[in-house]
TrEMBL record:
Protein name per Swiss-Prot or TrEMBL: ABC transporter ATP-binding protein
PROSITE patterns, A to Z: ABC_TRANSPORTER_1 (PS00211), ABC_TRANSPORTER_2 (PS50893)
Organism superkingdom: Bacteria
Keyword Transport set for record: yes
Family annotation (InterPro entries): AAA+_ATPase (IPR003593), ABC_transporter-like_ATP-bd (IPR003439), ABC_transporter-like_CS (IPR017871), ABC_transpr_MalK/UgpC-like (IPR047641), Mo/tungstate-bd_C_term_dom (IPR008995), NA-bd_OB-fold (IPR012340), P-loop_NTPase (IPR027417), Transp-assoc_OB_typ2 (IPR013611)
Domain spans labelled ABC transporter: 3-235
């Protein structure tokens, strides 16, 4: 089922600012779309309006072709998994997973069949007869997901479903979740403040800021070509570097110098080539900090007084205060308006 969100405005009582400010968005049938952004940007509010847990001031929500804007949550045909996954402590895993089906008066044999199937998908078969207290955090989280997917509704809404897990489990379960959602093929709207999670899971990501969608697109497109400085600085670890154009005159050539005074140049850490020796077209920089990440060596360097992060192969050896040489591939540079932070088309 596709979800069509049109011009949603929501202001909470007593708040001066809009929590969502005229948001329009279409989630295609079977698509996994992630809403991501810093705390307070309005992503949870948007999800809760789709769920029917908040009422928009203006705007409409359609699920499939049906206008559900005025419908109660239980009549919208959606499943939800929230951060505080409310699984019932007094019910065994089997009853917890089957709860939604029992509420819908599905007959017992069918409930059993579907619970068994979901349990297998989520590797919970062994623990179906346990109580939640006898499960690990990751297993509890899987119960919450199983309970949502077993209902087989056309739309799945998730709000930070992995946030209760420790870093390792989070990473593991992220990949499992991606696989499961692909298998069941449900249209999914997913909220997270974690940009890595958003990139990993989303067919498309919508980066939100101040109640609006700053950019919407496939993860790598948004990563490679951020539409503004905010998106480039939010997505990616490390975030995109931004340098005044004047710092790159030597790289881009004197011809482009006049135009460079008024631009901000964005470049990703891994797009800068680093050499210990001077090479053609290279500019000198000084190493400030060296951080081994295992997969790469992350260097903080000073280029003409401007700080940036560059990543090199893990075998690259560098020490603080050492001079190194940087090469920039013009094709990987992005240009922004220093006043507005908006992307400029390359001339
Ligand atoms: N029940 C509420 N009453 C008043 N203001 C609210 C309420 N819920 C959210 N807000 C405000 O609305 C704005 C958007 O909040 P929302 O929870 O949607 O953001 P979010 O991006 O999900 O943030 P987080 O990641 O911290 O949950 C914020 O300014 C927040 O303070």
């Amino acid at each position: 089922m596709k979800i069509t969100i049109s011009d949603l405005v929501k202001t909470y009582p007593g708040q001066a600012r809009r929590a969502t400010d005229d948001v329009s968005l279409e989630v295609a049938d079977g698509e996994f779309l992630v809403l991501v952004g810093p705390s307070g940007c309005g992503k949870t509010t948007l999800l809760r309006m789709v769920a029917g847990l908040e009422t928009p001031d203006t705007g409409t929500i359609h699920i499939g072709d049906k206008d559900v804007t005025g419908l109660a949550a239980r009549h919208r045909g959606i499943s939800m998994v929230f951060q505080s996954y409310a699984i019932f402590p007094h019910m065994k895993v089997r009853e917890n997973i089957g709860f939604g089906l029992a509420m819908r008066k599905v007959d017992a044999a069918e409930i059993r069949r579907r619970v068994d199937q979901a349990a297998e998908l989520l590797q919970l078969t062994e623990v179906l007869d346990r109580f939640p207290a006898q499960l690990s955090g990751g297993q509890r989280q899987r119960v919450a997901v199983a309970r949502a997917v077993v209902v087989d509704s056309g739309v799945l809404l998730m709000d930070e479903p992995l946030s209760n897990l420790d870093a390792l489990l989070r990473l593991q379960f992220r990949a499992e979740l991606k696989k499961i959602v692909r298998e069941i093929g449900t249209t999914t709207l997913y909220v997270t403040h974690d940009q890595a999670e958003a990139m990993s899971l989303g067919d498309r990501v919508a980066v939100m800021r101040d109640g609006r969608i700053a950019q919407l697109g496939p993860p790598l497109e948004v990563y490679d070509t951020p539409s503004d400085q905010f998106v480039g600085g939010f997505l990616g670890s490390p975030p995109m570097n931004f340098l005044p154009g004047s710092a790159l005159v030597a790289v881009l050539g004197a011809d482009s110098a006049p135009g460079l005074d008024n631009v901000l140049v964005g470049v990703r850490a891994e797009k800068v080539a680093v050499d210990a020796e001077r090479t053609a077209d290279a500019v000198p920089a000084t190493v400030e900090v060296v951080e081994p990440t295992g997969a790469s060596m992350l260097l903080t360097v000073l280029l003409d007084g401007h700080r940036l992060k560059v990543s090199t192969p893990p075998t690259f050896t560098a020490a603080p205060e050492q001079q190194i040489w940087l090469r920039f591939d013009p094709a990987s540079l992005r240009f922004y308006d220093p006043e507005t932070g908006l992307a400029l088309l390359k001339s």
